[in-house]
Amino acid sequence: MTGIAGIIKDYLVSKGITYTYVNIMPSTPQKCVAVYDVAGRSPDFTFDGAKFRRPSIQITTRDYKYDDSYSLISDVISYLEQLEGTTYSNIQFIQIEQTTDIFSYDYQDEYNNMLKCFAVNFNLEIFKQ
Q1: Burial grade of 106 (CB within 10 A; 0-12, 13-18, 19 or more)
Q2: Does the pTM exceed 0.85?
Q3: What is the DSSP string of 58-111?
Q4: What is the per-residue pLDDT across 111-121, written as a single tens digit (0 to 9) for each?
Q5: 31 pLDDT band (50/70/90 cuts)?
Q6: Domain holding 40: CATH number?
Q7: CA dihedral in degrees (16, 67, 96, 56; nearest 10)?
Q8: Any residues with CB less than 8 A from the CB of 44 and at least 6 apart, and which?
Q9: pLDDT in the model for residue 8
Q10: Tally of structural domains, the chain
Q11: What is the domain extent for residue 107?
């Protein structure tokens, strides 16, 4: 079974962000996106037994240039906003809430290149059909 980070990764790949990874940011390629499962909120149950899950994810981007990495995370945010209210991979995305602003940090690769990274967190409310 694919977790929510894997489903989000597949969705981003379908949008053209092909260098996307789940729960890992590999040392190469330098330009990439990572989707991490992070602690979410407890699920809600309805009287008829339906289970609404409320996982959380973190998206991290990395690239050589500040502007390129920032543009990449901005694209990811836009794609996730478009996913809200739709169904993808038999998952109904009821709500996608950005819970942090974009924050940045630097990463030095094995060749001493300084790369720019950005990250943002989201809370999701989903229902598996």
Answers
A1: exposed
A2: yes
A3: EEEEEESSHHHHHHHHHHHHHHHHHHTTEEETTEEEEEEEE-S--EEEEEE-TT
A4: 898 999 999 99
A5: very high
A6: 3.30.2000.30
A7: 100
A8: 51, 52, 54
A9: 98
A10: 1
A11: 4-128
Q: Residues 69, 74, 75, CA angle at the centre, nearest 5°?
A: 100
43's enclosing H/E stretch is strand 32-45
Average pLDDT over residues 81-101: 96
On the 0-12 / 13-18 / 19+ scale of CB atoms within 10 A, 60 is buried
- The token pair that represents 76 in the structure block: 């990811």
Confidence (pLDDT) at 37 = 94
Crossing angle, helix 66-83 and helix 4-14, to 10 degrees?
110
Residue with tokens 């990449």: 72
